[in-house]
Amino acid sequence: MATTAPAPAGPHQDGTGMPRGAAPFPAAPEIRPDVIAALGGTPLVRLNSVTRGIRTPVVAKLEMLNPGGSVKDRIGIRMIEEAERRGWLKPGGTIVEPTSGNTGVGLAMAAAVKGYRCIFVMPDKVAAEKVALLRAYGAEVVITPTAVERDSPESYYSVAERLTREEPNAFQPNQYFNPMNPRTHYESTGPELWRQTAGTVTHFVAGVGTGGTISGIGRYLKEQNPAIKVVGADPEGSIYTSQDIHTYKVEGVGEDFWPGTFDREVVDGFVQVSDRDSFLMCRRLAREEGLLVGGSCGLAICAALEVAREVDDPNALLVVLLPDSGRGYLSKIYNDTWMRENGFLSRFGQPARMAGLVAERHGDVPKVVAIGTDDTVSEAIEVLRRHDISQLPVVRTEAAGGSAAGSVTVDVPAVVGSISERTLLDQVFRNPDVVNARVAEVMDAPFALVDANEELERVFPLLTSSSPAVLVQQGGVVTAVVSRADLLEYVAHHRNRG
Predict the structure, then answer these.
(1) What's the alpha-carbon Rg for the chain, to the nearest Å?
(2) 438-473 as b/e, with b when 16 or more CB fall inside 10 Å?
(3) Of 41, 75, 231, 404, which sees the most CB atoms within 10 A?
(4) Is residue 407 pLDDT above 80, yes or no?
(5) pLDDT over threshold 50, residue 240
(6) How far is CA 24 from the centre of its chain?
């Protein structure tokens, strides 16, 4: 391929094309000295499609437009600079932080400019894209289990603390207790939002993780106008709104402990949002508003719309903060297979429930056919043959109503095991005399128990892997035994719907 030689430098230029003797960069106000100087100034955008039918105006602050892609960019540099000022972080030092991803990016971006090494500890529920992103910045990533207590040695908090002790010249910003977290938002994001709305904001909604964002912004706004209402969005299972603390799929929001960066006095109330609603709202925002956002954004929007409906005032102005981009969740929220496997997206157009499958089931087989513990294997084989089925729940004999009862009504506690053609074939092949044994001697563990109102998407993985059938219960009574064949028939019948 031919190449063109560069033109010789003119009489007033050097090899860069700049006038001889000129400064390498012109003093133009739109040219930032580095990426850190490009933080903030994210726009407010009015939402239109998802707010249809809601009179209260809702605008979103697009924090994913920060250089590193999230609201956490703002605190990363401020925590580093404060640590430098106090002598906690010295040249050549290492930054260690537990993070679900976004704070890590903010720290890694600033560390790249300043020359620090980074080690980030992340729970295993985070999307693979987030891990890859941090490594792209040159950071080291350590993955820990999600489903452990905070004080477990395996938790990402504990591992980060251990690494901070072990690594020479290491510093942990600790966004959960670092006062620069809320202070950054009090000094920058809050005034920015107040200025952008010309002081007309009446309600502010944001997800609550460390609590720094909502505490800093909320405190600033209330100082300008005490009438402003601040509402937190929280996932089901988080300590802020749940008595029963448990894991959830939304990343970067909610907690299982009370962070020191959260000011409870600032928040006027909470709205709890499910994983499913959060993720489905994300997909709506991408397709209806052109906003590709992360799960915590979907959560915040769901909460904001609930608040906006309650306010019902066209003269109000609700601002909702969208923390991050959806590019870190392409393998999850925006992946149909992942959404279906986790029960968030239906293959059937609308959520299909177990009760609907049972109601549509064809054939003459009773909804519940069982065998008693004291019945013989030979009698169990006869029940299977008579009803042309492949498996049976095993119940206490008195609950079965007598020997080889077949069709029965069973309370859930009466179920003690299961039996299948595969188990019987294996047992009889190894010992033909087993046909005279009691069912209790050869039975397997009980089939999985699911509620009649449970979505089929959540049951699908059980029937395709660990269990040949499931027991459907309603009000403490087993109402049906659903097999893989039943699921196959239902899927085939509904394949063209939705």
Answers:
(1) 30
(2) bbbebbeebbeebbbebbbbbbbebbeeebbbbbbb
(3) 75
(4) no
(5) yes
(6) 46
* DSSP code for 285: I
249 is catalytic: no
Look at the domain 74-171 and name its fold: Rossmann fold (3.40.50)
Q: Which residues contact 184 (CB under 8 A, 6 or more apart)?
A: 74, 75, 78, 212, 216
Q: Which of 61, 72, 130, 332 is catalytic?
A: 72
- Provide the pLDDT for residue 316: 98
pTM of the model as a whole: 0.71
Alpha-carbon span 356 to 454, nearest angstrom? 10
Angle between helices 456-464 and 484-493 (to 10 degrees): 130
CA 251 – CA 131 distance, rounded (Å): 13
- Would you say the CATH fold of 180-341 matches that of 74-171? yes
- The matching CATH number, chosen from 3.30.43.10, 3.40.50.1100, 3.40.50.300, 3.30.930.10, for 180-341 is 3.40.50.1100
| pLDDT, tens digit, 9 for 90 and up, residues 271-283 | 999 999 999 999 9
Confidence of residue 13 (pLDDT cuts 50, 70, 90): very low
pLDDT value of position 496: 47
